[in-house]
Structure formats: C-alpha cells, structure tokens
Amino acid sequence: MLHAILALLADGQFHSGEKLGEQLGVSRAAIWKALQPLEQQGFPLHRVRGKGYRIPQGAVLLDRAVVQAALPGALAERWQWHLYQQVDSTNAQAQRLVAETGVRPLVVIAEQQTAGRGRRGRQWSSPFGQNLYMSFVEPVSGGAQGLEGLSLVVGLTLVQALESCGYQGCRLKWPNDVLLDGAKLAGVLLEISGDLTADAVVVIGVGVNVLMEADDEIDQRWTSLRRCGQKGVLDRNQLIAAFASRLAESLVLFSREGFSAFHARWQDYDAWLGAEVQVISGDNVRTGRNLGVTRQGALRLLSEGGEVDVNGGEVSLRLSHAS
Description:
By secondary structure, the chain is of the alpha+beta class. It folds into 3 domains: 2-54, Orthogonal Bundle (Arc Repressor Mutant, subunit A), CATH 1.10.10; 64-268, BirA Bifunctional Protein, domain 2; 276-319, SH3 type barrels (Roll). The chain has helices at 2-9, 17-24, 28-40, 64-70, 90-101, 150-164, 236-257, 263-268; strands at residues 46-48, 52-54, 80-84, 106-110, 132-140, 170-173, 177-180, 183-194, 200-208, 276-281, 284-293, 299-303, 306-310, 316-319. It has a 7-stranded mixed β-sheet, with helices on both faces. α2 crosses α3, α4 (64-70) crosses α7 and α6 (150-164) packs across α7. The chain is globular, with a radius of gyration of 21 Å. The termini are far apart.
C-alpha cells in the first residue's frame, strides 16, 4: 500500500489522509500507520494539520520493475537486478552475491545503507529513501591494468546522465567526485577482486544525493539534486535507468578503446582544470597546477620540480587554498 500512497503524493501537492483513504479504500488511520515509519526513517514527508501530507514531486520508493521497464530494449536483461530495503553497503552486498552465485553482470540498489563507504574508508551518508546507492558488477578479462581510468569514465557517464535528466552545471573532480555549484553531489568507488593479472571482477559503486536536505555529520560542502534548485527529475527509478543505459554504452566503448576515448570529454568537465591544487597521500603533500589528465586517467600536476603524473588510489585532491 505504501507504493500506492506515494504514487498519489508524487504530484508534490498536499493530500489529506481522509482523501487518500477514500482513493485506496482504507481508513485515514491506515494511511497514517503506513506513512509513520517512513517519516521516522527520515523520508522527506511533510505533514501539516488540516492540510494532510506532501512529498517532493517525483519522490518515490525504488521499484526494480519500473527501472527495468524504463531501460531500452534488451538492456533490462543485461544485468541481474537486486533491490534491498537496507544493506550495509551495496558494494559489499554485490561482492557477497558474486561469492554466492558466481561472476556475472548484476546490479545492487538499496533504499538505505547502514555502513555506506566512500574512498579512503570514509563514511557515505545513506539515509532511507532519499538518495541513490547502487553497485554494478562487471567481469573483467585481461587484468586490472585494463581498468585504468574506469572510475573517471563512470563519473563522466553519471554527469551526462544527470544532464539528460535536467541538471546542468555538474563538474568532475579527479578521480571520482561529481560537483555541483562547487559542492559534492556524487561519488564513485571501484573495488576489484579476483586475479588482478587475468580474469577479475570490478564492482562499480555509485552514490548520488537526490532528496537529502540536511545532514550534520558530513564534513565537507555537499549538495543534492533537490537542494540545488534545478527543475530536473527527482524520481530515483528514472535516474537509475538513465545512468544504467549510458553506463552500458560507456562500458562497451571503454572495453574497446580504454579511457582515451573519453579523455577530451572528461577534461571539458574538469572542475579544477588550471587551478592550484594539493595532492595528499598520507603525510605527503604536493602542491601544483592541475594540467588535466593523461590518456590513461592519471592527474597531470605541474609543480616546482616539473610535471608529474599522479595515479589514483590512496590520494586526496584539494584546492590549494582549501583548509
């Protein structure tokens, strides 16, 4: 019944509990009972005495069938889809599924993560029903070396998908953050397992802030699609489908040509191209000018000692004037 209630609320207008009950053939109390847990979990449900309930236009729960129906042609069957109400992290659950059922393309999406992870072990804020938490599993042949630049490709693909959904101005921060108005909107986390010199598997984790409006525990500037004020798609099912369809195309091109096929386009979106930046690796800090990226996806840093290429991994990139 919860999906039916939210479908009626998806127009963004107030609806009284009594009217909702009439439309669904249940009591007003049943409506309140169905919505109360959602409200307690932090879902953006606005309740006003005398007016009823309202949610942001397009705010719906995830529905695997809706996502698959929105994908073109046979693409819905390219991956095996798994939807969970709650997991520790979609990447971890994807890895468990691979261990249990074998290596094959699959997708894990979840309404909530209890231990969402970003790069370098950082926590990824994952409230219920508000954002996108998804992981794509892809078999890899030829070893990990063939994956150079893949995280950049995923970020670029996400930006292009967001543009197609009405969000302009997204930019990329090397190696795997998406920024909007200078604040973090999304991130990518790749994890590789198996034989790193031959057949392996890569888990492509993606998190996007969609409906979230407040979080006191995030220690950096952040934004969300709802918070940015643009009139784009907020239906997370549609957002997943838009990204998945583009990702499938990107993975085919990447397997043929590597990152070089995406190099020029990625630099068009580089948020800090030409800026003075800091590259932090443990206690080591290097300062220089961001000259863009190589055709393998490494950061080109011009420092006092000359130009060096910085690879991903356990490094952090910051503007040199940032604290």
